[in-house]
Each structure stands twice: as C-alpha cells, then as structure tokens.
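ingest -> fold -> write
write: protein_1
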Amino acid sequence: MALLILGLVMFIGAHAVRIVADDWRTATIARIGEKKWKGLYSLVSIVGFVLIIVGYGMARSAGSPELYAPPVWTRHLAALLVAIAFIFLAAGGKSMPANRIRAAVGHPMVVGVKIWAFAHLLANGRVVDVVLFGTFLVWAIVLYAASRRRDRAQGVTREKGQPKATVMAVVGGLVVFAVFAVWLHPWLIGVRVM
C-alpha cells in the first residue's frame, strides 16, 4: 500500500499544483521556462502513475481487506458509467474540435475522471480500491471546482461546438471504451468488464 500512496502523492500532487500553489507554479515556469516545467511535471506524473499501478497491483495481491461488499448489479452500472466517462475524456482531448460536451461542462476530462472514480467505488469495496478511487474522486471534485472558479475569474467562454464534433467525441469515447473493456482491462487489471 505504501507504493500506491507514494504514487498517488506524486501523481495527484503534480496535478494539484495549480489548485494549491498557482502563483508558485507561474513563478517557477517564469524562472526555469515552460519546457523544463513540462518535463519535470511529466517525469513526476509518469513515475507517480507507474507507482500507482505497481502499488495497486501489490496491494490487491496481498489481499486488501474489504470495507463493503457491492452487489453484483453495481458492476453493470459501473461499466455503463465508465463508458460515459470515456465519452467525457474524448470530448476533452486537446485534439478534439470544439464540441457541445466541452461547452456544457467546461472541463470534460475532469468530469470523466469523476465519473470513472465514482463508478469504480460503486463496484469495488476493498480498502485499496477506496484509497485509489476515493483519492481520484476527491481530487477531481476539487480540481473541477477550482477550474470553474478560475474560468469565471478570467471570463472564459467556450464556443457552442459543432454537432459533428460532439458525435466524434461520443463515437471515439465508446470505441476506446470497447477496446479497453474487452482487451486492455482484462489484460492490465485482470478483471473482465463485459
């Protein structure tokens, strides 16, 4: 569990700097340059992500205690919610054209993370699951609130978005979800989604 927690601290910490220390972040970028900042940010994020994966796997194999036993139907609901989360993730991609999902929620990737984490908390009740997905859920809630507050303060407006781009986000998200659910999730996590 220690590796998982270290990974979460590194990964979430790197992604929370703008929330808790935006002035320091801006000053550091001005001092060292944007490329170095992005390089350090990426390095810390990648190392944190790897530690999360390894730590989660180790904690699962060690037999993490169960806090609650979710009913079987929550797995089906979780799969549906994760499919929706993938649509939000696709809608927020930098290469994705302006779409109505982004226009409606502002930060669809963060919404996608919230849905993904909540879905996994519904279907998994072990301590290690609550630590992992609970941390991501809390972080995404805080990040979304901070991002929307920053948008309002900066007067950010988003174009309405084209229906074609919205359909692309929905189809793209569902295709990636299907690939992940059928092949990658069983291979990486050892759990069949569908």
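write: protein_2
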Amino acid sequence: MKTLNGALLLALAFAFGCGGGEQTQQASTETPEAAPAAAPSEAAAAATEAPSGPIDEALAEQGKQLFTTRGCTGCHQIDTKLIGPPLKGVTNQRSYEWITHMILNPDSMTANDPAAKALLAEYGTQMVNMGATADDVRALYEYLRQQSQ
C-alpha cells in the first residue's frame, strides 16, 4: 500500500511540476497561434531560442537523417499531403516553440492547442510521439527550415 501511495504522490508531483515557462514572441512573418500546451522541462529547454541566420548544413543533414529514420516520412512529405500535412514552409508558419512542443508532446498539443486540434480534425490522425530529444528537435527544425526556403 505504501508503494502505491508513493507512486501516486510521485505521479501527482510530476503532473503538477511540469510546465511551460515564459512564452516567446512570434516573428511578424508567423501565423498567429495559441500558446502551446504545457510541456515537460525538456521541451522548455529545447524551446529557448529558434535557430536563425544561415542554415547549419551539418545539423540540417542530421535532421534529414532523423526525418527518415524516425519514420516521419510515413506521415509527412515536404511538398505533398499524406496522412499528415506537408511540411514545406512550416518554420515560416509556426514558431519554434510550437514545433518543439508538437514533436515532443503531440498528445498534449492536440488536446490543448487550437492549431494542433484543427490539424487533428483536418487529417484525422494523431501524430505519434516518436521519442525525440531536444537535440533531435533542433536538428529536425534546421532540416525543415532548410526545406522551407
């Protein structure tokens, strides 16, 4: 019984201890969107600042490899609508923070974020949590940024 109570307390502490942090200002070229749902601290750490300036080609190549090996291509293409939306231009349409949360916490996003809810309603398929890390997200973002040019 003590183990069950301890596990319950730990679960509650984790649930209430997770949270977003301060929201970043969107660039004027981005489509307005609601704030992303609260996410674990890894997402907050990854969302510190969007990559900018010249494309980091090595990081973009790493992102391309992740895009293929993590199975993203099963649902997404750059220019073509599949099970999920095409991703060309996504880094111009959504904030780095939003993309980070969508990759790391797709269930939470589709439950709480209006833009993610709309995508789920349009495509009818829940994005799968692929177990990405904050480093994976930065590489994937750089690849998507490269493809959005």
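write: annotation protein_2
Confidence is low (pLDDT under 50) at residues 1-41, 43-47.
The radius of gyration is 16 Å.
pipeline exit 0
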